[in-house]
Design a protein that fits this description.
By secondary structure, this protein is α/β, with parallel strands linked by helices. It has helices at about 10-25, 35-45, 65-75, 90-95, 110-120; strands spanning about 5-10, 30-35, 50-55, 80-85, 100-105.
Length: about 130
Amino acid sequence: MPRRVLDVGQCVPDHASIRTMLEANFDVEITRAHLPADTLSQLRTGKFDLVLINRKLDEDYSDGIEILKEIKADPKIAATPVMLVTNYADHQAAAVAAGAEYGFGKLEMAQAETLERLGKFLGKERSKGVKE
């Protein structure tokens, strides 16, 4: 059974890159959200194994960490693992301080460390080139 990922605030090319990386390495089903309202609505009505939030939301360029804070403040969805997608270490640190798991940057998607971090929530990594 695939793990469910909610990808929040990514532009089309970045979402495509993240989707490709996740689908190549894990058995996942990926859903998109764009802003806080649709993100919170999807989390409250469905179960997700991981939420990936862009540092700056593509739709309005607001800070993704604000959605993280809203998720962690809601007892019904606070336990859902969240990662911030950013190349900036200071933003990663702020996200972790707000309750996120240490995420990754778009420049780090192919790194073994990133896949290992994701594997904690998405299950065993697939053998390269094998799609189940």
